[in-house]
Please model this.
Amino acid sequence: MKIKTLDTLEDVQKLDGLLGDYIRFVCDDLERAAGLTFDADVLLANTVRSLSKVIPPEGQTFVAETEDDDILGMVFLRPSGNHDMEIKRLYVVPEGRGTGAGRAPWSRPL
Model:
C-alpha cells in the first residue's frame, strides 16, 4: 500500500466519485440509524466548493492506494483553530476495509 499526498485542487477534484460514495454511505447510515435524511447531491456540492481548505497551505489530503494505483481510501485534514487540524471525509472503499488503509496515513509523520 502507498500513501500519497494530494497537493493541488485539480488532484483533489479527481476524488469526486469517491466523495460521492462517501456522502451516500453517510446519508444512508444516518437514515438507517436515526431516521435522518439529507440530500446527498447538496452535500457533495458543498464539499466540492470547499476543497481548497484541504490542500496546502491550509490543509492536507491523503489517499491510500494499491501498488497498481487503485484508490483504497482518502482522508482530508482541515484547519480548526490555532495549529489544530480536523479529520474530514475519512473513507475506505469496501474492498479496502481491513487492509489498514484507514490507519495508514497516520502511521507516518504529517
Remarks:
- The CA atoms of residues 1 and 58 lie 26 Å apart.
- The mean pLDDT is 90.
- Strands lie at 2-6, 60-65, 71-79, 85-92.
